[in-house]
Amino acid sequence: MRNNVKITRVKTSITQQQLAKRVGVTRQTIGLIEKGEYNPTLQLCIAIANELDKTLDELF
Fold it and tell me: pLDDT over 70 for what percent of the chain?
């Protein structure tokens, strides 16, 4: 699944570790989501969108 998580995260100057801690997952999980190798739950998608101040449509 292609997404804009990495682009948005970098633009907001947040590290993978910081985002992971805020949404309650590991840094590795964030990395896999950014690479499109992990399909997050809807709940996790919403948490990431909230932390990055974006809509689900904008990120995924």
Answer: 98
